[in-house]
Amino acid sequence: MHKAGERSPGDRLGQEDGEVHAAIRFAVLAAAAGVGFVVLAALWVSTCPGTGVDTVACGAPQRTMLAFGGPLILFAGGLWAFVRTYRVWKAQGTWWGWHGAGWFLFTLMVVALGLGVSPITGPVLAL
């Protein structure tokens, strides 16, 4: 049992740690990939002349894939961060950086779903 003011041996707060740096680097790169995909998809879909034309990005399947691509990238990144959290924890390393990266990517995925899917899919998902 820990005494008051005593740190847990696994937190390593205030120390340089390669796992925390790797988790931050991974979260930034995965977030850039997911958000970049959403931005490029929105720009690509904005070139659609109307809903009746089925060009490369204007058909229903293409718009749906473009809308969900970014959130899927962020979901995969968050899932990988949680897997990495478990592996680092099991090896008794500094796991909390990976845990934070996973929650950051999952939160960004929900934001990308909320803000990006409707404008990109347009009338495709409207019932």
Automatic annotation (TrEMBL):
The chain crosses the membrane at residues 22-45, 65-83, 95-117. Keywords: Membrane, Transmembrane, Transmembrane helix. This is Transmembrane protein.
